[in-house]
Amino acid sequence: MNVTYRLDKDILYIAITGRIDATNAAEYEEQIFNVKKENPGKHTVIDAENLEYISSAGLRVILRLRKEEPKLAIINVSSDVYEVFDMTGFTDMVTVEKAYPRMSVEGCEFIAKGANGAIYRYDDETIIKTYFAKDALPEIKQERENARKAFVLGINTAIPYGIVRVGDAYGTITELLNAVSVTKLIRKNPDDLSEAAKYYIDMLKSIHAIEVKDDEVPDMKETALAWADFVAKHIPEDQGKKLRALIEEVPKRNTLMHGDYHTNNIMVQNGEPLLIDMDTLCMGHPVFELGSMFNAFLGYSELDHEVTMRFYGYPHESAEKFWDMALKMYLGTEDEEVCKNVAEKAMVIGYTRMLRRAIRRPDEPESPAKIARCKEMLEYLLNKVDTLIF
Q1: What's the CA gap between 143 and 139, in Å, rounded?
Q2: What is the pLDDT of residues 316-339, one digit of tens each?
Q3: What is the DSSP string of 18-87?
Q4: Which candidate, 40, 39, 46, places its Cα nearest to that of 3?
């Protein structure tokens, strides 16, 4: 067989190997359409990584396939084969993507892991972000566009300059010469967090100082309202109504936000903070950013402090101290009562998000305990907090 396939959710990946010309085009066509008949209703992507040559007879096979599959895509195309597609006008009719260089992160220094991927230092000049999703190209392109937007808006960020294959997944490469993460600064000097916190908050304030246009990035208020609507079905009716009312009351803001602002995503290069991992760029009132930050430092690791060590490489106690110091720096006050008041507003957002996440993942062993804890804390907070605005 010169045609093999694999399924990934609703996508049928058909891999074609070797040379397609007049002598075997009919055989290839039969195999391809048999695979499609065995997997009806799936979006088809042709993986041409091992396709060495294609003649006009082979192109006609692709053309007939495209008539059945208007959104057909061809990926991992070598330069020589791409030239044939381009010269014959196929690139105007079909999405044709060139093959990406292959790199390995085996033996590389692990920097961070997030919801969508993991980041490694490849060498002194380069970091690689690997994506968990097999078909992460749309996600990668959106993140690169977000990084470009942030750079144009004046945020000190690094724009990924290349896409690579890492095993069966995709990755991006970014130049970060001798940069270290704020996480690493905390690990190096856990007794004095002031330098790390200053880098962290200086960058956060520079982000929040920028106003973006409507629809330029997602609005976090709309996302938070969707969380509240989901959670309202699982908590007492009066709590659900108050939760939605609190979020609804938050004024629309076009303030730029990162959306996943933790110490793994801030690098320091030549004495300046540098923002990375831009797939969550959004806008809104800063309470939504602080809610995400609370989760990153305390919420997600509240029931299992080892989560902090696994994610950051520093102990939970350091995360608690850093959250407290960073919040005071951001608010510009040492007043414990003021900081506690703002922290509780952020926690309303944080626990709402965590509760939704835990309910949607019932098979995870820790979900029942997380659900109970989030419900307990939301009940407590909704009895205290009358506004999320600060």
Answers
A1: 6
A2: 999 999 999 999 999 999 999 999
A3: EEESTTTHHHHHHHHHHHHHHSTTPEEEEEEEEEEEE-HHHHHHHHHHHHH-TT-EEEEE-HHHHHHHHH
A4: 46
Contact yes or no for 186/263 (Cβ under 8 A): yes
* SS3 assignment, position 88: coil
Tokens of 62: 């692709």
Q: Which two tokens stand for residue 104?
A: 């390995």
User: How far, CA to CA in Å, does 191 sit from each of 134, 227, 275, 278, 315?
Assistant: 41, 37, 24, 30, 12
Give me the amino acid identity at 227. Answer: W
What secondary structure does DSSP assign to 363-386, as a single string?
Answer: TSTTHHHHHHHHHHHHHHHHHH-S
Show contacts of 324-328: CB within 8 Å, 24+ apart. 325/193, 325/194, 325/197, 326/197, 326/200, 326/201, 326/293, 327/290
Could you tell me the two tokens for 180? 């270290």
* CB 283 within 8 Å of CB 216: yes
| Cα–Cα distances in angstroms (integers) from residue 41 to residues 30, 74, 131, 154, 293, in the given order | 18, 18, 26, 45, 41
Q: Would you place residue 1 in the very low, low, confident or very high pLDDT band (cuts 50, 70, 90)?
A: low
DSSP 219: B
Domains, in order of start, for the chain: 3-98 (3.30.750.24), 109-175 (3.30.200.20), 180-384 (3.90.1200.10)
Residue 272, beta-bridge partner list: 269
Which tokens belong to 114? 């997030």
Distances (CA, A) of 87 to 127, 240, 305: 35, 59, 58
Burial of 170 (0-12, 13-18, 19+ CB in 10 A): buried
Per-residue pLDDT tens over the stretch 136-186: 888 898 888 888 989 999 999 988 888 999 988 899 999 888 889 999 999
Q: Which token pair is 291?
A: 């809610």
**pLDDT (tens digit, 9 = 90+) per residue, 169-228?**
899 999 888 889 999 999 999 999 999 999 999 999 999 999 999 989 999 999 999 999
**311 three-class SS:** helix
